[in-house]
Amino acid sequence: MQPLTNLATWSIIMKNFSTSLKAAIGAIVLSMSAGAGAVAITTDVITVVDESGSMSGEHAWLGGMIQSLDAAFNTVAAGDPVSTQYGLVGFGGAGSHLAGHKHNVGGGDFGTAPQYAAATGSLVLNGGFEDGYSGIHTALNDYTLRPTARTNVILVTDEDRDNLNTNSLTFSSILNNLKAENALLNAVVNARFRCSDGSSALGMDSSGKGYKADGSGGVTTCGSASAWFGAGSTISDYVKLALATGGAAWDLNQLRAGGLKADSFTKAFIDVKVQETIRPVPEPGTLALLGLGLAGLGFRRKLSA
Hints:
Blueprint: H1 7-30, E1 41-50, H2 56-77, E2 82-91, E3 101-103, H3 113-119, H4 132-141, E4 150-156, H5 171-180, E5 183-189, E6 191-194, E7 200-201, E8 203-205, E9 210-213, E10 219-222, E11 226-230, H6 234-244, E12 248-251, H7 252-256, H8 259-277, H9 284-296
């Protein structure tokens, strides 16, 4: 996989991106109808991140994305209580970073969104053998998860699973572990998705709904989406796993494309994560407006190869 090599450009992009998206989401909530239902949100979000040499762009993206996701949670809650905390697991690096392991966030396992963004600087880029199951296992078993919280696990990797052969982790055991924690898995991976008409999709959710870039930085949807290509065993390792939890799977290459397509990817990802996390589901007008607002934001990010 070709990494996004201009890390300085990524840093500038994400600094501006986070602030702009938060401001735009704030504008969206001002136009929500007074009768729309607010909702309390409690969630533990843990990202499980590949630390191989090609992942610099994704490491830079994560901090801004999490801060924007946190802003979206607060927007949808509309004044109701919000309790979010964010953790960071690495895997696939060299030495002690090979197997799944915790990264300190804000002085502990979990921290705030800004503390998480700072913690992504501790990720390394020196590996090449990536066992994502090891990272997911760490997220589910080495953290104290709140029983009242929705557990969200976000896997980010550009390779299929490399089995460390030092554990007995399997698709079934990881899926059972995810279900036991009532955890949703979203997988940002090297897989391609398409709609029923054959057009390219950014990703898909467990209902078969696909998410498409509209060419202007927004998002449209389609039905009967499917994964049609994956690097190695990516589809069987990760895409099917995410969908089996009720989560979603995403094409990392669409993020790496940069520009308006990357804008669309991030908006779709955040919108889906909010929808998955909300308990109870708010009145339809609230959620529909959030989706339309995220889809309509016209941010522009230029990436240098």
